[in-house]
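Homework help board

Subject: predicted structure for assignment chain

Our instructor gave us this sequence and asked us to write out the predicted structure in token form, then describe one feature. I got the tokens but I'm not sure how to describe them. Can anyone check?
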Amino acid sequence: MTDLARSRRAGAVAIVATLGAAYIVSMFLRNSVGVIAPNLAQGLALSPPQIALVSSIYFFAFVAAQIPIGVVIDRYGPKRCMLVCAIVTVASTLLFAGATSFAAMVTARVLMGLGTSCFLMAPLALYARTFPPDRFAMLTGIQLGVGALGGLIATAPLAYASAAIGWRATFTVIAGATTVVGLLILVLIRTDGDHRSADAPAETLGEAVRGVAQAWRCPDVGRLFVLNLTVYSSYVVVVGLWGGPYLTHVYGFSLTERGTLLFVPAFTQVLGMMAWGASERVFRGYKPAVYLGGGLTTALLLIVGITGRLPPAALWAWFAAFGACAAITPVVLAHGKALFPPALVGRGMTLLNMGFMGGGFVSQLVSGYVIDLFPPQEGAYPTPAYQAIFLLQAGFSLLGLMSYHGTREPKRE
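My token output:
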């Protein structure tokens, strides 16, 4: 290998690592409320609906930004888009770290959702424009896999850091790390990928919206969209929001104890995504894997919803199984991709992504009002309050599977 080839390879590795780090920030901020939710509730006197809105409004902002972000990436390029979003993310994280009111927290989370909304799509656009086509699938897998580390960092590491220096100082450190990522994007990424090809027409926001509407009209997409609303939301309503308060109020776990236990489903989710991603070859279709993973997720939610409290060993096993079973996102995405004609794949995947994130917003927001129906006892919400949340999410999950039942199986046609 020549010195020039080594230099190019090192540069490519640095770029991929930088883009992966940006997605780590996105995944961390998305899931960061669950572990520290009891601390936020106590420190700012927040009610369950308020805590739910602080967490869920991120998803709403993220979804609202998806179509405009696609237009911005096409018009101004991935690099410029990521630089602006990095600035917004840093500002929002600092605002969150210094927030002393509910309104400030909600504002910070809205800005977080907007700021991180491009940290998957912009890197994928950059990969498509600057790397050979046969590398795209590999680079996409790396981006998703590296980004999953953010979800892991939002559990035990966040808990231990918050216990050591406080959650406010921890988020200040995250803002500093995001600043470094933004500087690396500025320095390492050339502007070559920031220009459309000469024959690529500029797309207006209205045209982008009409394109997504066209994807919606494809057969069976509506059924799959309902499933999307429930698949990812099962994970984020438990691990991303109420898992921490549940472990504290029902089991008496400390900050570090709940962070350690929530690390388990975050870790098994990463393993599960890899396993489910390869499962279509085993089942020779999408639907058996979705039925299996979705059915087990529903059953696990029902178990805790009915019993309320599990023995310690069973609790650890439950969280491990839950993370793995709820990780069927790759199969659902693959099924969705197969339903769209080639010309609508990009718009269709944007639509499905809006379903995943929109479901997280709805489930988290509704669950906050449900738990608030139960009066707190000595500052802690009773076990039946959390049982109601698990049972409600089990119902959502079952509804998604019922909607999915009539979807055609492209693999077997």
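Reply (TA_rk): Your tokens look well-formed. For the description, you could write something like this. The chain has a mean pLDDT of 88. That's the kind of observation they're looking for.
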